[in-house]
Predict the structure.
Amino acid sequence: MRRFLLIAVPYFWLLALFLVPFVIVFKISLSDIALAIPPYTPTLDFSAGWAGVRAFFSALDFENFTWLTQDDLYWKAYLSSLWIALISTAITLAVGYPIAYAMARAPEEWRPTLMMLVILPFWTSFLIRVYAWMGILSQEGFLNQFLMWLGIINEPLTILNTNTAVYIGIVYTYLPFMILPIYAALDRLDESLIEAAEDLGCSRLSAFWLVTVPLSRNGIAAGSFLVFIPALGEFVIPSLLGGSGTLMIGKVLWEEFFSNRDWPVASAVAIILLAILVIPIVLFQRNQQKQAEAEQ
Amino acid sequence: MQSTVFTPWEDPDAKPLIRFQNVTKRFGTFTAIDDLSLDIYEREFFALLGPSGCGKTTMMRMLGGFETPTEGRIELAGKDIVGVPPNKRAVNMMFQSYALFPHLSVWDNIAFGLRRDKRPKAEIEARVAEMLKLTRLEKFAGRKPHQISGGQRQRVALARSLAKAPKLLLLDEPLGALDAKLRQDTQFELMDIQEKTGTTFVIVTHDQEEAMTVASRVAVMDEGKLIQVATPDRIYESPANVYVADFIGDVNIIEGRATPGEDDTYAIDWAEGEVPLQATSATRFDKGQTCYLAIRPEKVTISTDRPEGAVNAVQGKVLDIAYLGNLSTYHVELPSGMVIKAQTANTRRISRRSFTWEDPVWLSWTVTGGVLLAG
Amino acid sequence: MNRLSWFNTVSLTLGFAFLYIPMVILVIFSFNASKLVTVWAGFSTKWYGELLGNEAFLDAAWVTLKVAVLSSSIATVLGTMAAYVLVRGGRFLGRTLFSGMIYAPLVMPEVITGLSLLLLFIGIGLDRGVLTIVLAHTTFSMCYVSVVVSSRLVTFDKSLEEAALDLGCSPAQAFRLVTLPIIAPAVISGWLLAFTLSLDDLVIASFTAGPSSTTLPIKIFSAVRLGVSPEINALSTVMISIVTVGVIAASLVSKRSMVRQQKDEQEAARAQ
């Protein structure tokens, strides 16, 4: 009985507040917009009995999904989200790998402090960290002031409200997610493997490419997924740092819901986003499993 | 063909393959290697033996190019190699942890060094096949390191480091990770491969039995210095000092004062009211000089009665018996409280055990049975 | 011996500069006398004073705190149960679905989680307010808690529990007297994680909050959309300081207990 309760309480909580909501989203994505409360039809009417249920199902259709393919705003937004997520993941990797590498090579007694310094931003508010860049990237912001003071530019660059600002924002906020798994992989790397490679004729650089990189690829993969997956559905960064030209699906969904109040289309957007995310999520799970098996 | 015993170190004209000249290595204030000079010859199987922290691993890492000496010169085939990076040396190393690349197959691990030399593909394939055959790993070429046993991994590491046909192969505790039975088999295999390939091997070990089994010469090290460099039998039978005698095998050490007699024979006063012990020594001892008589347990005979005409005989009672199968070791306590170990071979399968606990017994040994040491 | 090469030193310096300079600038300009956040006009703490006088922010902060404490506490209980079920529960019907539901929210875009919960609340006619935010936050943060706790439970020596049972504990007693004290650090960090996630969350709260229950991130977001303001800088500084003090204190405490444990072990070894 106790065991039943132990399993049932979290189980039903998740069923009710995670799975059921998804079924609802899916159902609404098949409904039509209506000027009513709630603003969609059909609604399930049990009072009409079996006929009501049948009427309900016959009114569901894939109209919204057809709509998504017709209006090029949506598929452009999906493509641009994928592109932005991909580019920023690549930049985060390029920025994060040297930091993780240097941390793993740092003296033993420094490492806990370095770890703490990487984790600390993660505990501070995401919103505030994105906000911090608004003052830096604006026309009269610090970056422009600094670059003009250096004499590199004469006129302020427009960075805020462009895709560049979105890249910077994503790289900045998700950098710890990239550093930590790579650091974990490099930390486990046996120093004698590098020495063995050098002993067998590798230069420092070729030992890095032939041994260090392949052996940290699980960390690279984990870090990349941890950046790519949330970046794809990101909302805060494009809406604060991006401009009107920045198309990201999280923002489109938000606007569809709050500004246009088109719940069925918003739901359809969500379902498609989820379908796109399934691929990287499954790949990520596989990577994690492989890593867990390799450790055993 | 003339069959001569392999002893290049006794030939004054022989050119050493490796020469350490007054090499010192310090890490901060710690001196790991202290003004050490040593010659190692081609085709030798040379063992560096000592407890952990004695500097043997540092010696090896300097040969591999992973450490540079603070002072002194290291020559390989007549050329100074200090400052030459590991990837530019005709020296390969077999790591203690084997350091097999976990992401590469056995075949790719062995081919790794050959590929770095940009050798033709056919040559690499032929060489890897040869190495696989040498180490009997043909069946495992496609496996990853974690899919083979510890003994097989050890052989992959050996094959990989031998593949480039180095002038010198360094082996860092090569058998440390194997269990006792496997270790014995592997020791003979190592010797066999060394002989077949004609490569000079330098092995680092803390296991004296291993060093004695495989090596043509053994260097016993302590605190960054060489204590004795000699063939295994000389190390065992004529240790240079008490440290070496004690480190290699089991030994009884009796402290006393020497009195010179005739023909290099010395009388040793070792205990109040006891007959002085007799021992020969080529090194001179002055009258009254402190000396140590080192006697191996197997050189001590145990008997119920005092043997006729025995030069050295002492009486005691049996304290402990350790039955080892092929041997039995008796711990005998002398009236002074000192414990002497005596070993007998159990040559008969069923025999009445001659001695038991608390039995009064006589221990005896010949005048040449022990070695007289100054310290 | 293990000194850093110049390349590694440069990477670390640039990396940490990138991570910290934006926040340092933010903090410095919270003490700016000018309304313009990019031009320094002398030291002043007036924005902090104004912050204290801003009823709307204080109300939102109070709501946020209430939501965070409630949701993280419920999430810790549920998440620990879920972790225990996952690691020790054995087989039961729908186990795969259960572990899927634990891991899915971790990778789910917040907009989708928020949207789906909102549609649920509307569907069942639940008025949006503090309760709905708490329900929403509990749901996603319990998954984080359960991941943290289960990673500790996996390394937990099961024979300790078996010993407790052998010595006469009921399973519940064994959990309370043996398992819980040992996994306590993981449970506490799970709670802290859930707490900060709830404090931080903008998107899910925006979907599930009602007009009367605005949280601090929602408030900040709507203010920030209009541009940079020194008052937000002051608020950010307060939040950053609290987190910094908290994280440093936590790491000092854990370091001290580690040092003490090492010392105890050394002494015990010497006493032998």
User: Anything to note?
Assistant: Helices of chain B lie at 56-64, 106-116, 121-134, 150-162, 180-197, 208-214, 232-237, 242-247. Chain B touches chain A through 24 residues (CB under 8 Å). The first helix of chain B runs from residue 56 to 64.
